[in-house]
Amino acid sequence: MADRSIVDARARAVIILSTTEPARKVPKQSWTPPGQGDRHEPLPAFLKLPVRGWRKLSPRGRRVVAALALLAVAAIAAAWPSVVRDREAGERQRARIAAADKAASLRALREDQRPRHALLAPAVKRRISAAGGLEAAPAAALVATRLESAVARDVRARIAAGKLEGPALLRTSCEPVRDRSRGGADYNCFALTGRSRGGGRVLQSGYRFSARAQLPRGTLAWCKENPRPLHPTSFVLSVPISPECR
Predict the structure, then answer these.
(1) Could you tell me if residue 77 is inside a domain?
(2) How many CB atoms are located within 10 Å of the residue 172 CB?
(3) pLDDT over 50 (residue 191)
(4) Is residue 16 part of a domain?
(5) Residue 185: CB partners within 8 Å, gap ≥ 6?
(6) For residue 121, what are the domain limits?
(7) Widest Cα–Cα separation across the chain
(8) pLDDT higher than threshold 80 for residue 13
(9) How far apart are CA 54 and CA 63, in angstroms?
């Protein structure tokens, strides 16, 4: 019964009369019995596509592809030394630029911290000696006032020259350290340039200085400090304070 149905279906598919023109036959249509149609192989995995493509190439096509691959390898091999040289040249150039930037930063830092000097007047030296030298608190306080004036002049000049941030100097204070000798004393100075409030507190900004007074020569020397940040986010350059200021 199934064979007869197939035959009948095939016969019906061969000739079909047109309903509009009975004398004209409809062209023969192809018909494929169920289960006997063309089959296509499914695509392989992505990584296997090149292998499949290679297998489907003709011998001439394979020779062409192989020749192109050899030419590509030869071109890469010929260009690779130039790539390496360019990369090394770029690294050397970046190293030279980094070294130049570091040297410039160190020069600027040394200039910023180099000692500045002032002299005590002969009359002031005599008053200090009469008071018992710099070990005496009144003599140390007298030198502190002279040092504050000298540091203030230096900071104002640097702000005017654009070497320090202002906008202006508000106050300068110098305090002698506890351990002093008759002929020498160290001081900690602070130049106040800003004041603000935050969190119920007064925040002060400015510049710190280390200073030293020498009585025999009557000299004052001070050096600006650049303390390292507590939590640096990058490499920080530092220069030691000159012994003249300590």
Answers:
(1) no
(2) 23
(3) yes
(4) no
(5) 134, 135, 140, 143, 176, 177, 212, 213
(6) 116-245
(7) 145
(8) no
(9) 11
Neighbours of 114 (CB within 10 A): 13
| DSSP letter (8 states) at residue 91 | H
Q: Which of 81-85, 101-105, 161-165 has the lowest mean pLDDT?
A: 81-85
54 touches 62 (CB < 8 A): yes
Cβ-contact 128, 176 below 8 angstroms:
no
Q: How many domains does the chain have?
A: 1
Chain position carrying tokens 């007298």: 142
CA-to-CA distance for 137 and 144, rounded, in angstroms?
A: 10
For residue 224, the one-letter residue type is: K
- Does 211 map to a domain? yes
Distance CA 66, CA 69 (A): 5
User: 52 lies in a domain?
Assistant: no
* Confidence (pTM): 0.65
The answer to whether 45 touches 55, Cβ cutoff 8 Å, is: no
